[in-house]
Amino acid sequence: MELERETGWQLHPIGGETGQAYMGTKNEERLFLKRNSSPFLAALSLEGISPRLVWTKRIGNGDVLTAQEWCNGRTLFKEEMTSSSVIQMIRKVHQSQSLKRMLHRLGGKVLSPSDFYYNAVYGLAPDLIAHPSIRQAVSYLEKHMPADDQIENKMVCHGDISHKNFLMSSEEELYLVDWDSALLADPVADLSQLLERYIDHQNWDEWITAMIPFTPGATTSKFYWYGTANLLFDIKASHQKQDYLRMNQYLIKLNQLLS
């Protein structure tokens, strides 16, 4: 493989949707290697949010290869996503002004509520548009869209809060990885993703009440609005992947929410 000749590392592809991640081995050393990872990675590494960045190298075809410390551990179980350590990690990201300055300098995406609405609704398949709950959700999002905050009130958001993106090392250190979806937005956008994916609907109000004091600008209505938008996005994404089992699970959640 050309990439192995350029780097001097033997590459072992790691699963994932992009196909750009590898375990690199040389002698007895191991690294996590990824093509065209976000340049934001260096700042995340410095703050201890992602595993330590070892080196960055531009390869022959113009791609950039990053190498991070190989972290023995595991991704979190779904049941662990309600833990205080997960919330603390997300808050650490949201509260970091240095991360915000860095992402802003790098030209990171800045999303308003209308952008979240567009991302959730645009490209919905005709059979989804015809679904009564989907139509009701779209109407709700249109009528109750929050006012857009100034850039000063937006924070760094991960953009894909999933148990697969939280890594617990063998030393019990928690990391948040896969930053390809990083953006500047209302922090409720991240927290509502955690809410709709991992919190039982019966516990939503209690959970939201606990989060609001620690989330600038947060209100119950914002949590419900962003939660609905994220549910629609997840329904659309599951339909596109033909993962109809997961899509139906999200539709059940949407029905519970709207009722």
UniProtKB/TrEMBL annotation:
SUPFAM superfamilies: Protein kinase-like (PK-like). Coiled coil: none annotated. Residues 40-210 form the Aminoglycoside phosphotransferase domain. This is Thiamine kinase. GO terms for molecular function: protein kinase activity. Residues 1-20 are annotated as: Disordered. It comes from the Bacteria. The lineage of its organism: Bacteria, Bacillati, Bacillota, Bacilli, Lactobacillales. Keywords: Kinase, Transferase. It comes from Alkalibacterium pelagium.
